[in-house]
Amino acid sequence: MKPENIREVCPVCGSSELYLEAGGYTGKLYRCKNCDYLGALIVEADEEMARAIREDYKKEKEA
C-alpha cells in the first residue's frame, strides 16, 4: 500500500464520509454519514480494502 492511496474509512460500511463528532482529552469520536456509526475506531485503508468492507456491509444488509 502506498501512503498516498491510504484514507480513513468507516469500519462498518467502508465509507469515507466520516466527520469528527467529539474530541478532546477523552479521545475522538467519529460519525459515519452513510451508516450512522459512532465510535473511536476508524480504518486506514486503500481502495481495495475499502471496497471489501463495503461489499461485506452490503451482503450483511441484504441478509
Low-pLDDT runs of 5+ residues are: none
Task: Please state roughly what percent of the residues sit in beta strands, choosing from under 5%, 5-15%, 15-25%, 25-35%, 35-45% or over 45%.
Answer: 25-35%
Distance between the termini: 32 Å
Largest β sheet strand count, sense and barrel closure = 3 strands, antiparallel
Mean pLDDT: 91
Query: How many alpha or pi helices?
Result: 1
Number of strands: 5
Explained architecture:
The protein is an alpha+beta fold and 63 residues long. The chain has one domain. Helix content is 25%, strand content 27%. A three-stranded antiparallel β-sheet has the order 2-3-4, with no helix packed on it. A two-stranded antiparallel ribbon has the order 1-5. The longest helix has 16 residues. It is flat and about 35 Å long. The model has no long low-confidence stretch (mean pLDDT 91).
Task: Characterize this entry briefly.
This protein is an alpha+beta fold. It is built from 1 helix and 5 strands, in the order βββββα. The model has no long low-confidence stretch (mean pLDDT 91).
Chart the SSEs and their pairings.
Elements: E1 7-9, E2 18-22, E3 29-32, E4 38-39, E5 43-45, H1 47-62
Antiparallel strand pairs: 1-5, 2-3, 3-4
